Amino acid sequence: MRQAGRSLPEYRALRGDGDILDAIRHPEMAAEATLQPVRRYGVDAAILFSDIMVPVAAVGFGVTVRPGVGPVTDTPFREATDLDRLRPLEPPVDMPWVAEAVRLVVAELAGRAGREVPLIAFAGGPFTLASYLIEGQPSRDHPLTKRLMYSEPELWRELLQRLANLVIASLCDQVQAGAGALQVFDSWIGALSPRDYEAYVLPASRYIFEATAHLGVPRIHFGVGTGELLGLMAAAGADVIGVDWRVPLNIAAERVSGHGVTALQGNLDPVVCLAPWGTVEREARLVLAEATADLGHVFSLGHGVLPQTDPGILARLVELVHEETARV
Amino acid sequence: MRQAGRSLPEYRALRGDGDILDAIRHPEMAAEATLQPVRRYGVDAAILFSDIMVPVAAVGFGVTVRPGVGPVTDTPFREATDLDRLRPLEPPVDMPWVAEAVRLVVAELAGRAGREVPLIAFAGGPFTLASYLIEGQPSRDHPLTKRLMYSEPELWRELLQRLANLVIASLCDQVQAGAGALQVFDSWIGALSPRDYEAYVLPASRYIFEATAHLGVPRIHFGVGTGELLGLMAAAGADVIGVDWRVPLNIAAERVSGHGVTALQGNLDPVVCLAPWGTVEREARLVLAEATADLGHVFSLGHGVLPQTDPGILARLVELVHEETARV
To answer: Catalytic site residue B51?
Structure first.
């Protein structure tokens, strides 16, 4: 459950309200924020406390994550000369605190009693990163991003290639430091038609999954509103496809078939977790029932946990899923 | 092309920057804003200059449309007593300016040379209206709306029933005043899973289309991000389903089949219209090529026109579609 920490009082006490890019420069703090939901909820995997802008910021592009707003940049990406602001990432020099946080988390997880809990490495996807750099702020319609994509396809390809290289370097760094899986969050690709995703984004996505295959860990690919893109996302080469709540898992299973995907991840609507427990239980059971026998299923929410979620509800949800899946 | 006026300097001069709910109380102004895109672009249908909150405001619920923000209410819908704020609509008493604007538009359209241009009546859909009333403002996640939907299904049903009655009264009024088609904009239903749409919204949608069948005009049903809902929207009984740019028209055609749908409407990405003409032309031709022979096709954008769109591009787009479809 990504962003599960946001619902926890102990997280809010730890975190304060500054820029997350500053906060995660403190490995002990990042490790603690990563571990809090594991302790509180007993989930089966941890995901590194991070932000998709970390590698971009680490090479000095000039970006901040404004609390309550999201990633913003005073000098957005506009033209070919801006490519120089995206030099190759050297994780040990540019962001040593990330690997350090990973090592701290993995050490603590290894020392826990009970079943093994892997840490999932965290990175953004190329379209979503490009949108923040080009728009200079979060955007519903991504107008400047798509304009550049359509009007300057060569520059667009070069931008996505550079972003993909940052993503790959960051993921390899996290896995080499001990992460046992990785996830690429290309959250906003659902703004694209399948035709545009295939032409303008799929090559960079495929490159990321090809370049991380040698790591030998399960690789998860996720976006929101991706109903029509699931087959293309599967073709990009991930092992697991994350599905939001809009697509029933049995339908998602059909759409990803034939590409070597081994499991689906999802897909309870995070908003359901604001309802009384009876509703959460009913909806969670429906999600479990929609998972098919052909594919593995990693139960999770269809998007990040909403901050106003009651931690007690999430704890009961994890318990329910453990009970139900132990029975299988 | 809905909201095509927003791109026009003559619209901005006419409209100023107040609440649209005040502006449309002036029938001459609303008629003029409706006709401007027809004159400038030569489109084949006009859509009434209106707002989905008109009937709700007309019965005194207490809502304003804040420029640059959207519909807001100081006293959101919270409990059963709030139903009293949604009494039945009497169009001739509560919003006589709407029918008057329709009559002015229809008279002017009838006097034009060339092919007949029908006016499309305008109304919101029940989920989208409910969300604005319950959230009190535009919302990405619709948390309070879904919480009420899940937790108080009886109250939810009653709310949607009342909203559906407002929609029906408004649409009947507009068609009786001369509109030659109608469109229900349930813009945000794409936030729902198919299971939830079917359980919580479809009954009200079906009720609206049943209650407007006797009007004898084509009825269009539209929402954004509705890939998984197209079959259910078709089952609700519309003649035409509006499709956003995320679903290729040939796939949409499969999903709506078997429910008596006669045409699809869509689905060029409005953001494409910010690109140079070469891109717009290429993408528009691809949309035309994806339309199937089995179903009629009403070419339009997949969502409203973006305000920063160049009117010259839209004029060329209309010309292109006219040339291409004349050839068929």
So the answer is: yes
Q: What pLDDT is recorded for position B2?
A: 77
Peptide bond into A250 cis (omega under 30): no
Local confidence band at B328 (pLDDT 50, 70, 90 cut-offs): low
pLDDT tens digits for B144-186? 999 999 999 999 999 999 999 999 999 999 999 999 999 999 9
Which member of B151, B192, B271 has the closest CB to residue A146?
Answer: B271
Contact call for residues A6 and A307 (beta carbons, < 8 A): yes
Instruction: Determine contact: B146 vs chain A, CB below 8 A.
Output: yes
SS3 assignment, position B242: strand
Q: Among all residues of chain A, which has the CA nearest to that of B197?
A: A246
- Distance, in Å, from the CA atom of A145 to the CA atom of A134, rounded to the nearest integer, reads 6
CA dist A179 and A212 (Å) reads: 13
Residues in chain B: 328
- Helix locations, B190-229, DSSP H: 194-196, 202-211
Which residues in chain A have their CB less than 8 angstroms from residue B190's CB?
A: 225, 246
Q: Kindly report, residue by residue over A188-228, the tens digit of the pLDDT.
A: 999 999 999 999 999 999 999 999 999 999 999 999 999 99
User: Residue A50 is which amino acid?
Assistant: S
Confidence of residue A45 (pLDDT cuts 50, 70, 90): very high
ipTM of the complex: 0.91
Phi, psi of A117 (to 5 degrees): -115, 110
Global pTM exceeds 0.80: yes
Alpha helices in chain B (DSSP H): 9-15, 20-23, 27-41, 54-58, 91-94, 96-110, 126-135, 143-151, 153-176, 194-196, 202-211, 230-235, 249-256, 277-290, 311-327
The β-bridge relationship of strands B263-268 and B240-242 is parallel
Assess whether A132 carries a catalytic annotation: yes
The shortest C-alpha distance from A149 to chain B (Å) reads 9
Whether B2 is a known active-site residue: answer yes
Q: Is B183 helix (H, G, I), strand (E, B) or coil?
A: strand
Q: Do A246 and B270 touch (CB under 8 A)?
A: no
Beta strands B70-72; B64-66: pairing state:
antiparallel
Q: Please report the residues numbered 303 through 322 in chain A whose beta carbons come closer than 8 angstroms to any beta carbon of chain B.
A: 306, 308
Smallest Cα distance from B279 to chain A, Å = 7
Distance CA A177, CA A200 (A): 32
Give the integer Cα–Cα distance in Å for A219 and B40: 52
